[in-house]
Amino acid sequence: MTVEISLILLSILAGFLLGIVSGLIPGIHTNNFALILVGVSPILLNQGIEPLYVAIIVLSNSISHTFHDIIPAIFLGAPNDDMALAVLPGHRLLLDGYGAEAVRLSALGSAGSVAFALIMAYPLVFFFTNSYDTIQENMAWILIAISAILILTEKGEYVTGQGSLASFRYKGYALCLFILSGLLGYFAFEMEYLATPILKFGETSILLPILSGLFGASQLAISLMSDSHIPSENISRMQLSVKRILRGIISGSFAGSIVAWLPGISASIATVVARFTIPKEIDRDDIEDELEDSKEFIVSISGVNTANSIFGLFALAMIGKTRSGAMVAVNRLLDSATIDSRSIILFLTAIVAAALLSYLSTIAIGNNVHHVLKKIEYRKLCFVVIAGLTIMVALFTGIFGILLFLTATTIGMLPPFMKVRRSHLMGVILLPVILYFI
C-alpha cells in the first residue's frame, strides 16, 4: 500500500512538472508528452510502473498545462491552441500593469472549474449521455447559430453623431473576417499534409502557425507600431468583484464541459460561447470600465480549458469517446471499459492534487516573471517573441507553416483597424468544423 501511494504521488508530481514545461513553452502541448508517455509505457511496465500510473501522469500533465499556459499568453503574447483568445485581453492587462493579477485570476478560474466539475459532474454527465446523439445530429446548426450570434452582436466603434445604420458596416466587417479566416483554416486543414516539420516532437499541429499568426504575432506587430511598453508597477492583488469571478467560472466551466462531449469541437469554440456572457466589449476601447471585462474573460477562458480536460475523462468513461490527445493516450493505456468507479475516484484525486500544486506555482511564476521582463526593452521583447514564434513554426510545420503564419499574421492585424472584435477570427476553426458536420 505504501509503494502504491508513493507511485501515485510521484505520478502526480511528474505530470505537474511536465505541465509546467508544456504550459510555459509555446508550441509544446500536452498531446506531445501524452503520446511520448504511451510510447514508453512498455519500458515503464518492465520497471514495475503499471499503465494506471502513466495515465495519472497524463491527466496531471493536462491539468497543470491548463493552469500555466496563461503565462506566455499574457507576458509574451504567444498563444497555444486553447488560449488564443486570451492573448489580446491578457496582453492588454499586462501593458496596463495588471499582468500578475491576470495570472492570479486565471489560476482562480482554473481552480474554480475543478470545484465546478466535482459539484456538477453527475447532472452534466446524466444530461450529455442522454442527449449526446441529438446534439451530434444538430451540431452544424448549433455552430451556425453560435457564429451568427458572434457576428450579429458586433456593434463596432461608437462615434458620436453616427447614423443608426453604422453598426451594419461593422457587422459586414465581422462577416468578412469570419469568412476570410475560415477559408484560411479550411485551406490549412485540407493541405495539412504539406506541413513537413524539421523537428518531429509528437503530432504536428497546423493550428500552431495560424493561431500564432492570427492572435500572437499580429498583436505584437501592432504593439511595435504603437510604441507600447511594460509598466514598472505590476498589480497582483485581485480587484475583480466576486460576482464577476463566479460568473466567469460558471460560464467558462459550463462551456468547457459541453465541448468535452462533442466531436470536432475544440476548447477555442467553447471560449467563443463563454464570451457571450461578458456584458461589454473586451478588445477595443481603452476605457477603465473594460478592464473588468478583460479580467472576467481571463477567468472564463481558464475555466473553459480546465473543465474541458476534466469532463473529457467523463466522456471517455461514459460513452467511450476521446476528445483530446490526453484522453487518446489514457484510452490506449487503459481500455475505457476497465475505467471503473475506483479508477475515476483515483483520477479525480490526482486532478485535485495537480490543480492545487498548479494553482500555487502559477501564482508564484506570475508574480515573479514581471520582474524579469520589466528589465527588457519591450520593443526588443516583441521582436524576440516574433522571431521565436517564426522559428517554432518553421521547426514544427516547415515552409508551408511559415506561409500560413505570414498570411495569418496579416489577417490578424485587420480587426483593430476595422474597429471590430478579434474573436471573429475564430472562423478559422468554426467554419471548417461547420463544413465538416454539414
From TrEMBL:
Protein name as annotated: Putative membrane protein
Domain named DUF112: residues: 9-426
Top-level lineage group: Archaea
Segments crossing the lipid bilayer: 33-58, 108-128, 135-152, 172-194, 206-225, 245-276, 297-319, 339-360, 381-408, 420-437
Taxonomic lineage: Archaea, Methanobacteriati, Methanobacteriota, Stenosarchaea group, Methanomicrobia
Keyword annotations from UniProtKB, A to Z: Membrane, Transmembrane, Transmembrane helix
Species name: Methanohalophilus euhalobius
